[in-house]
Amino acid sequence: MKEPMDKTFTAACIQMCSGRDPQANMAAVSDLVRQAAGDGADLIMTPEMTNIIDSPRAAVAAKVEPEENCIAVARFAKLAVETGKHVLAGSLGVQAGGGKLANRSMLFAPDGTVMARYDKAHMFDVDLPNGETYRESSTFAAGDKAVFADLPWGRLGLTICYDVRFAYQYRMLAQHDCSFLSVPAAFTVPTGTAHWHVLLRARAIETGCFVFAPAQSGSHEEGRKTFGHSLIVSPWGEVLADAGTVTSGIVMAEIDPAKVARARGRVPALMHDKVLSVADDVSQAAAE
After folding, report:
1. Which positions of the chain have pLDDT values less than 50?
2. Does residue 161 have an active-site annotation?
3. Catalytic choice (13, 161, 178, 209)
4. H-helix or E-strand spanning residue 282
């Protein structure tokens, strides 16, 4: 497995409360990206659905464009050039064709070019005990590819929100030499309260990766409430930064890529995969 680079850098996670107006959302996040860059961040990341949180599907579809015509994509490219930083648009809603949208994470280089794009693979289709219902698959086309990109400090694996519950995706990225994992999110309050910190720390510990999780936070115009708590987690599972429940803010941490090798050296679990078969007596009992 390739060793991570040893040059330290500063990672920043932006926390915000996106609404129904893409222009207003982009104005708000642009100010935060500039602030993070001015404060010394090298890698700046925004939450899931930075450009719009709205419902129903028709309302979202009417306000977004295909990637090549998307105002938010163009704005992020300009922000990367303006700041001279690597910028991850945690995810943007864009038209994907076939009557569906894509929930797309996009990584921009300092020259404004797109280094990587990832469409959310796992769709959040659930009925929560508090009566909230989500059917992402009715609006978004699921992605089917794992995606990573090489930064000056090591390799970043891209994921989005509900993906965090599927550990195999993160293990795959780590076994493809990723040292960092991004998990931009818009977690609900009930599931966030119960699982957010645990899941992100687990993904960091299992993979020996740094985890960057910029999050939506607060009460959104269309009615949903998101958990906040943008996190930066070390490869040993330590929470290096937590934004709490502010609706607009930035958390930052200095990242030492050498800690990836140290964590994996102490617990080399990524090298110990084993394929198990189901015991015969269990199989027979299940059949009966």
Report:
1. 1-4
2. yes
3. 161
4. helix 280-287
